Amino acid sequence: MTNPILDAKQECREIVLAALGRCVAEGELPAEPIPDFTVEIPGDISHGDFATNIAMVSARVFRKAPRQIAEALTAQMVLLGTSFDAVEVAGAGFINFTLGRRWFSASVQQALNAKENYGRTDYGQGKRMLVEFVSANPTGPMHIGNARGGALGDGIAAVLDWSGYESDREFYINDAGNQINKFGLSLDLRYQQLYRDGVEMPEDSYHGDDIVEHAKNFAAIHGDKYMSAPEEERRKALVEYALPINIKNLETDLAKYRIHYDRWFKESSLHADGSVDKVIKLLKEKGHTYEAEGATWFKATEFGADKDFVLVRSNGFPTYIVPDIAYHYDKLVTRGYDKAINVLGADHHGYVARMKAALQAIGIDPSRLDVVLMQMVNLVRDGQIIKASKRSGKAITLVTLLEEIPVDAARFYFNLREPNSQFDFDLDLAVEQSSQNPAYYVQYAHARICSIVAKLKSEGIEPRDVTLEELDLLVAPEEIELIRHLAKLPNEIVESAKAYDPAKMTRYALDLATLFHKFYNACKVLCGDEKLMQARLALCLAVRIALKNTLTILKIDAPETM
User: Fold this and answer.
1) What is the per-residue DSSP string for 471-488?
2) Which of 42, 60, 320, 322 is nearest to 179 (CA)?
């Protein structure tokens, strides 16, 4: 699929470079290497559709004032047969390009022709990307942070797919290590409480109702059989009973959130197949470790980390980061993904540097790991932030959230801001059916277009194929503005993929909905001119396609009636 914005940018560059060649050939400019220059969309539409800084960045090379260079270049520019119909010098030497009428008409037609594929490009050239997200501890239900991570990670995978990458989704199950030991302890104590008085729960154990429920259900099956068993045996039995249930619940809950993974990867498999021992051995063989205080340390500072860290404790057990190193080795070497993308909480900032240092030490380009750090979200009800404690088991879970607000609203809101921004999620607004609710506002724009089409059909007016010449009739400022934004969708998806930021898609959808409403209020679709009417109807259909595709990327419904 084409990218109208990127194609136009490239055309600008070609026009500039051709003009440079002519200027050099005629002796107006010296034959010197050209510095890198940009072609951008100006913030102010009065400055044209595209602008380049070529004259500004080449002033020193050409030993001329930027404005002189710009005037020389524009005099040599040939716009015939291009997407542009005007070029001018502005200010100290910026060169502004104005798109021709036909570019706008062709953009509408591209959307109409592409239909459900409008927005897709081959930018990624099939590179394999593995997006790991949520990866919540399987020791309890998912909390609100996982809700944001789920929408974010799923959105990243979607925009990568639409941008021509091969993107896979993966959940990393932490079914080994300290949290599983604590899980076993908590289950054990709750189980003992059923048969013995005076059993206390340590403050740092898991206090959630789910732990109590697991213990009761386990007792319903086995009775007090395990009360007389050795502690290790009892805890092992409890974990083997409860953990698969929790993992299945995670899968079920995420499916309600419209998230489906290509693979659920167990940490325990890395211990079982020797991958953990392999990375320790590899780091030792490469001379990147040392022994101190009875432990094995990694020379992380030699690879840019702020401090060295322990790989193997004095008791012989590896630290939590070693399976993670093995896991990333599996991603990038064993399975051969071009990139590993991890969505993590902002508190993992130090972890990123340590992991990249370890990857470099074992011979993996650390740039092949990209980490998206997300801030937490505050839930707000009645203007007040809801305070909850995960440890006490009173945290709002993903399931309880989805019982209160629609999935559409949750997925839209959690992708409303870029990952590194903290924001308040207004639970009251999320269920409000008004233009103040951004999710509702976008969905309403789609439904409104469906209503327009249905009304015209009831009056015997059917949409038909329109020619470029008929689309050329769309010249009102509101029409031009709407088409300009419509044409941005393929590029916005690419930019969203490059930045790992699905919030670009929610912003695009909101702006498109706003511009559509503006167009609809200013330009009557049912007018006296049949050709203009069909052109405006075609524009409505193109916008509907763009809205639906954007919502599809976000896994949000596009209703036909509201």
Assistant:
1) HTT--SHHHHHHHHHHTT
2) 320
Enter the pTM of the model: 0.93
pLDDT score at 212: 96
- State pLDDT tens for residues 203-246: 989 998 899 999 999 999 999 999 999 999 999 999 999 999 99
DSSP secondary structure, 205-234, as one string: S---HHHHHHHHHHHHHHTTGGGGS-HHHH
Q: Which of 78, 1, 128, 6 is nearest to 495 (CA)?
A: 6
Beta-sheet strands, E only, within 222-303: 263-266, 289-292, 295-298
3-class secondary-structure state, position 31: coil
Domains within the chain, CATH numbers bracketed: 4-99 (3.30.1360.70), 128-171+260-374 (3.40.50.620), 178-256 (no CATH), 434-553 (1.10.730.10)
| Residue 314 CB neighbours (<10 A) | 12
The 3-state DSSP class for residue 28 equals coil
Which of 462, 463, 478, 445 shows the shortest CA–CA distance to 558?
445
Give the integer Cα–Cα distance in Å for 397 and 374. Answer: 18
In angstroms, the CA 41 to CA 45 distance is 8
SS3 (DSSP) at 69:
helix
Q: Which amino acid is at 118?
A: Y
SS3 258: coil
Full DSSP string of 415-471: TSS-TT--EEEEHHHHT--STTSHHHHHHHHHHHHHHHHHHHHHTT-------HHHH
Q: Are strands 128-132 and 166-173 parallel, antiparallel or unpaired?
A: parallel
pLDDT in tens, 129-180: 999 999 988 998 888 889 999 999 999 999 999 999 999 999 999 999 889 9
